[in-house]
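[Automated response] Your request has been received and processed.

Submitted sequence:
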Amino acid sequence: MATHRSSQLNRVFRFGSFELIEREGELRKNGVRIKLQEHPLRVLLELVSNAGRLVTREELQQKLWPADTFVDFDVGVNTAIRKLRQALGDEADNPRFIETLSRRGYRFIGPVDGGSVAATRIEIGVAPKRAKSSLTRRWIAIACVAIAVLVVLVWAGSRNSKTQTGVLERQLTANSQENSVTSMAISPDGKQLAFADNTGLFLKLVRTGEVYRVPLPPEFKAGVDDWFPDGYHLLVSRAEGPGKSSLWSISPFGGTPRQLAENASLGSLSPDGTHIAFLRGDAPYSGLWGQEEWVMRADGTDQVKVSAARQDDSQVGVPTWSPDGSRIAYIRSTWVYDARASAVEINQWQKASAQTLFSDSRLSPAVHWLPDGRLIYAFGSTPNQQDSILWAASLSQSTKISSSPKRITGGHGWISQIAGSADGRVVIFLRGNWLPSVYLGTLDTDGTKLLATRRLTLDENENIPVAWTPDSKAILFSSNRNGTREIFKQAIDEPLAERLVTGADHLSQPRITPDGSEILYVSTPRSAGPESPSAILAVPIGGGPPRLVLKDVGIAIVECARLPSTICMYTTVKGSTWETFRFDVRSGKSPSAPQIDPNCNWSLSPDGSERAIIEYRPNQGTIQFRSTTTGKTRELVVKGWNGLIGVGWSADGRSLLVSWHDFERDSALLNVTLDGKASVLLRSSNPEIWHAIPSPNGKLLAIAEAGGAKNVWQVEGF
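Generated structure:
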């Protein structure tokens, strides 16, 4: 008798070094699986299965986002395409795979060896009568095995049900990188999410997904801090200008905002709603920190400072209240470039008495006190400190940790804010991937215009460019991609980087010696304390063993001039004291007295004659020049550009490359002439611009930009 065949199809598409397997829902590169979410995968499948043909945005909406699904489709498809381009190493301006047809849709333009079928075929038929007994025995054996497997699965399932935590985690917002969520809070009943992004302030019903815009007066830009216990009012921080903010009470359902406090931000309501803890004193260039913790009544009266600024320039994070309202907790952190010390501090605010609960350099700015007395905090995980894990620690009446902390959840992205419902059953947090990457820019002949830019490092790790090789063909940068910070070199025409220096310590700031023969770098112990020495080492540019140049405590900045000058300088940070020393790459530190600096960023001119200095303080619009020999200073005002943060010299030393940030997170890279005239080379809100390093030939820039989407997540059942 003829046999009937049915097939379970599994299309496999191959393009470049990639392979897309439909049934498994997997994208692989050279056989290695690439992590990609469901919607980007489905968009990719739709594009490659229609390779060469325009797939309209309307088609994608109909197939991937049904009519009864509540979602911002434009945000959804833009996010999916962006994630696909990141996964494929593709570029919108110069695509190899996905071409954008403005306002119409997308076309997959790469050659596809696809649609091939890997089929699992199941034969179903009637065997000859003489084989009936054999077939019967075969089916009985299969049935017995199936029953045994089922029994094992049931047993395992019942066993797992007793041991699994039952934690449920889900994403509440899906904003794109261009419009990230900036702040959020959950209503006391856990049913409404208030959040802000670059376009305004919104209210989302968690169960149904409906989103409503919160009405605000014109020019009233605010971030969400907390809900009042009545569930009808929000506590918000209003941005009023560079370094200026105030606290307000508003209703998301309409009405006139009411100001509670000036020069205040990032407030938190006590459990009974009678008091507000908040921050004062701007912490430069960060929207999550302040210099002082304050408490006032909920109507804005009786303002009391409970934690003052310290001489170590430490910053304090957003406060959270103990269940009985007698204490506040927050993170205190001290930053020195890429090294920091952080601690959870608990303050009995009525006495202004603070104690340290524990210290750990992995702590994020976020902390939240639950009604049951547990304290939730976030740790940066290893090997990538940009990935955070939520932990919960039970505290005793004496505010000591009473049992081993328990992990709640983890995931990809840095956690910067934590909030919760009044009963503590629902916790939300803001998770983002704010990672620095290396971008390559091409300058025009006079260096005042940036003709083109592209991303050079395509991985999701911290990649910070610092210098160029003398031939202008490769960029030196530090990266934590292997679990600790190491030194890498990447040619401008290559997709992969070469690891130059590795070790057990954190390695950073690769610089070229004046004669171009060696690479200097800083080695800092991974468990370094305030008194731990760092080392400046040198390694031949062509490879070889490192040699020690000098050791000192708190090395922060290292730079060298170019021949004929042989000057190199480094800064040490010890508490609030900044000292800058001259040194020789062969003999070490100079015996001459150091120059005493403010808390600042500086850059050494190519000829070694002076340093350009930008002090770390809000609304900075002045650049100071200081002679490396006499110490004499002069100042340069850059008119109209308050908010300068980073400085570097052009290759010819005739102008400066200056990074600028405003209070709304907008950023720019400026070319500033030595008489104070500024022209914009690049402007961006996401990613934000950190600094730029010119190539020795003056034709290219290595630009450090940091960006990524931030969104709200919810966790319960912990």
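Summary generated for your ticket: The chain is about 10% helix and 50% strand. Residues 1-8, 117-164 have pLDDT under 50 and may be disordered.
If you did not submit this request, please reply to this message.
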